[in-house]
Design brief:
The chain has 14 helices and 22 strands. The protein has helices spanning 14-25, 41-46, 48-67, 82-106, 160-163, 180-191, 211-223, 279-282, 318-332, 361-367, 382-387, 415-427, 432-436, 447-456; strands at residues 4-10, 30-34, 110-113, 116-120, 123-126, 129-138, 142-144, 157-158, 172-176, 195-199, 226-229, 232-240, 243-250, 257-261, 263-266, 270-272, 305-307, 346-348, 353-358, 371-377, 393-399, 405-412.
Length: 463
Amino acid sequence: MSENFDVIIIGAGPGGYVCAIRAAQLGMKVACVEKRATLGGTCLNVGCIPSKALLQSSENFHTATHALAEHGVVVSDVTLDLARMQARKGEVVSANVKGVEFLFKKNKVTWLKGEGRIAGAGRVVVDGTEYGTKNIVIATGSESVPLAGVAVDEKQIVTSTGGLELDAVPGHLVVIGGGYIGLELGSVWRRLGAEVTVVEFLDHTVPTMDREIGRQFERILGKQGIKFRLSTKVTGAVTSPDGVTLTLEPAKGGAGETLKADVVLLAIGRRAYTAALGLDAAGVATDERGRVRTDAHFATNVAGIYAIGDVIAGPMLAHKAEEEGVALAEILAGQAGHVNYDVIPGVVYTWPEVASIGQTEEQLKAAGIAYNVGKFPFTANGRARAMGDTDGFVKILADKTTDRILGAHILGPDAGTLIAELATAMEFGASAEDVARTCHAHPSLNEAVKEAALAVAGRALHI
């Protein structure tokens, strides 16, 4: 056996690398296993970071070609340099992954380069070399869910990975799946000139979203030129030099049809990635969806083996994985690590953005919880008017008896930033009245949050 550690983390995505850094800060001898040539996992390499780089670049292009004139800025002969846009995305990714490598060195975390396998409690094998450890953390993340009859080649039929690497704007992009990933990448290529059609099995997109928010979100994306084929399933795909032909059927049965595309993006969800980990041999239990089973302290059924992030139950979000990584490191150090799963925001980084935290109206109704609703539109917000971004609204749900905020949903400019105020409020058990009586700067987008909180009690000032 080679070197011994206090903890070995398998996977250097947001959950894994944050867990490694925090454990090292707490005085542990830490190693992190990663088979990629760079650290950061899916998120930094082929997910969150590169997609946000392209979202920003494509939004800049769209603004220059469609929105600047109304501000009195006249730009002529705007052209797209997709190669430069893709190169910039690569530069952003490189800076982020090198930043993680620097943090590993700063905190004396050992990077074990290669594919990791659990040989048993306290033993991890990396490319043939066995290491001893007191604790093992599984943080291997997730992978794109496949679809029968739709064979991915990452050229004509792509996952999010290939969808970030296209070297030409497709004439017609068909997105299979109306979730976060599909809508974000669909927005990128729509802004750059592609015709975009989203095919979704359900009768609405982003199923976890508050439906009132979701309906207006779909209308806004429709005005941007994205077409939706809802309540529709894809049963097959045939590629040819001329493109891809998809076979579609109504979700509830009926006559089928075909749909032609230049590129197809398969984005129907993600699943836990546990291939080659040796979970069965190690006796680590998984659930019916292939996720690692854990208790409230991230422990598996095998002593000394833990799991965090996309590989366990819960929302597949990088920030959820990070919170779990910190909490687990602190638990291993004898502290009281904890994650409040009721206060984890989710954001769709289209424009306008959509951000959500806590419960939706549908969930509150299903649970029989009495609540009040406060809403405020961005059309009545001075800063949004000045920006020219008035689509959407803020919606706050508060307990009818205690006024405690139970959920908040924002469709509008910088919604992902605005939701942080409500996350803080909910973490500390604040009421809508608490937010309403907090002074907000004027003119700011945040005033829409204050007004929505006032509206919970029926006393919004500017509508």
